[in-house]
TrEMBL record:
Protein name: DUF927 domain-containing protein
InterPro entries in the record: DUF927
Domain DUF927 span(s) in chain numbering: 16-277
Naturally occurring in which organism (per UniProt): Salinivibrio proteolyticus
Length: 553
């Protein structure tokens, strides 16, 4: 049996007779997974009854197997014409299998983002490799939509960002997401916090316009599993999330961790085996009227330091809500309405050009890492903790992306304004944070500042051996005051966990605590004939240190 493909349809040659099988359809490539050990199939193209050219990947295991009619049903549903004869599908099936052997090879992927040096989306791929890459599931609705040219986006949308640091910053967040992998920077979330009607959602739609239309923005009103699925779908892209205050606090708790961890929960298959987990890299941009601490307060707990580092909260700032320059508009609302109008008319043109630039940039990984380190070294101070520096790296990533885009004329503002805008946003984050210390350390020192005056009045002199003190004692050691605070009282009043060494370590490192039990950080003494454990504080050093560090209550 032979086949002949004309410009309009597929014919079958059997017994010297030509019979039409169906519409135009062709195998473009023989595909398989990157390992070349499984996932074999074919990229096929066809025209539907409206003349629209479609393509998708079909897998050999389905085309050969008992469920091959799923492929037939998908083709027919897409508008492909299959002749209404019993043998039509079997003939088309045979044609596709024969053509697979003749087709050039390619790599099939089921996630967007970086695959070696190639960047893959549902609609297009950029970058060079020995074989072409193809995305499976191309019949699904594309998340990347486009209207207008890059020049139109620059003049009608980008020009509005000039003079507005927050607008430039959110565009930088959108551009930064594909740089997470080459820069080796961990996932993160930037959360814009401010009252209603300050322009937060407009900022989010502006960032989305780099990629697509407003549908690119998702809502926090979803389960944690749902948000993880969205993050996996937008691998190596920005994830836009609107209104954290509308989400259930427990979902925010889980989602904040999952989005940044970059992996889904382990699940069992119907047969009891372990399902393959989803993975993603993303830089999320979130908005809301509430702070993360307020969300967790409703759960009766504090946000963990790791969550506060992952979800960086930035207060909305500007002379007019989120904006400093209204350009030709007289009132902020008119400017906001114009931003919304323009981002709904021009979108999706910057991202393809940006990825063309990234895939053609020589030694992209080395460049981004060195630029990030240069900016971190420029911005950091000697008092900054490791937690702050981790967040600083994320701000430096955004500045690096913006500077590269400015230098290559992809955005209508210069490199200096790109970096200065990020520095302004960074300054607002540091001001809202109130300190540059590790969160756990600051919490301990702030609590100590409150407790020290109370302890000073409550401690008994150590020399009065007949006086039993539940809290502890004071004494002089080598001419310096030392306070012995009962271990259980110390942990309870400072609200420390049972595993407390991480919280106590800063006190040891600063020389504010003495110990004869390094593994416990405690001082073990005989008091009134029995052994007791204390935390031995040097209060004069602590008073001076807290004053120097300007610790707020």
């Amino acid at each position: 049996m032979g086949f002949h493909l004309t410009e309009t349809h597929l014919e079958c040659l059997e017994k010297e007779e030509r019979q039409v099988v169906g519409g135009w359809i062709k195998v473009i490539a023989r595909t398989r997974k990157q390992s070349k050990k499984h996932g074999f199939g074919a990229l096929i193209q066809w025209r539907n009854m409206d003349g629209v050219l479609l393509q998708d990947i079909v897998f050999n295991r389905v085309l050969h197997g008992d469920q091959s009619r799923l492929i037939r049903d998908a083709l027919i549903d897409s508008g492909y014409w299959l002749e209404p004869y019993p043998q039509s599908w079997s003939r088309l099936q045979r044609y596709l299998l024969q053509e697979i052997l003749k087709a050039p090879a390619g790599i099939c992927v089921d996630s967007t983002g970086w695959h070696d040096s190639v960047y893959v989306t549902q609609d297009w791929c950029v970058g060079t490799n020995s074989e072409p890459y193809y995305y499976s599931g191309q019949l699904n609705e594309s998340m990347l939509k486009r209207t207008g040219t890059l020049a139109q986006w620059q003049s009608q949308v980008g020009a509005l960002c000039v003079g507005n640091p927050l607008m430039i910053f959110v565009v930088g967040v959108a551009l930064s997401a594909p740089l997470l992998h080459p820069a080796a920077v961990e996932n993160g979330i930037f959360h814009l916090v401010g009252p209603s009607s300050t322009g937060k959602t407009s900022l989010l739609e502006l960032a989305a316009s780099v990629y697509s239309d407003r549908s690119f923005v998702r809502s926090w009103i979803s389960t944690a599993n749902g948000l993880a699925a969205v993050a996996a779908e937008q691998h190596d892209m920005m994830l836009g999330l609107d209104e954290i205050g509308l989400a259930r606090p427990e979902d925010v708790d889980i989602a904040t961790y999952h989005i940044v961890a970059g992996t889904s929960k382990l699940r069992a298959t119907e047969s009891g085996g372990l399902a393959k987990p989803s993975h993603w890299r993303t830089l999320a941009l979130s908005t809301g009227e509430v702070w993360l601490s307020e969300v967790f307060e409703s759960l009766g707990k504090r946000p963990k330091a790791g969550q506060q580092i992952r979800l960086v909260e930035i207060p909305v700032f500007g002379q007019f809500g989120a904006f400093d320059v209204l350009h030709r508009f007289q009132r902020p609302q008119l400017f906001v309405d114009h931003v919304k109008s323009q981002t709904s008319r021009y979108y999706g043109s910057l991202f393809p050009e940006w990825m063309n630039l990234l895939t053609s940039t020589y030694e992209l990984a080395h460049y981004t890492k060195s630029e990030i380190q240069r900016l971190v070294d420029q911005w950091r101070t000697s008092s900054m903790s490791s937690q702050v520096i981790r967040v600083l790296q994320r701000f430096a990533l955004v500045a690096t992306a913006l500077a590269l885009a400015s230098r290559n004329y992809l955005v209508p503002w210069d490199e200096e304004e790109s970096i200065d805008s990020v520095k302004q946003v960074l300054g607002q984050w540091l001001a809202a944070r109130g300190h540059v210390m590790n969160t756990e350390e600051h919490q301990v020192l702030a609590r100590l500042k409150v407790l020290l005056p109370k302890w000073e009045k409550a401690l008994s002199p150590m020399g009065q051996q007949n006086t039993a003190s539940l809290l502890g004692y004071s004494r002089d050691v080598n001419g310096e005051r030392q306070w012995l605070i009962d271990k259980s009282q110390f942990l309870r009043q400072l609200e420390m966990p049972g595993q407390y060494m991480r919280e106590v370590m800063p006190l040891l490192q600063r020389g504010w605590l003495t110990t004869n039990e390094p593994e416990r950080a405690t001082l073990k003494l005989m008091v009134n004939g029995r052994s007791r454990r204390f935390f031995a504080l040097l209060p004069d050093r602590i008073f001076a240190g807290i004053q120097e560090l300007e610790i707020d209550d």
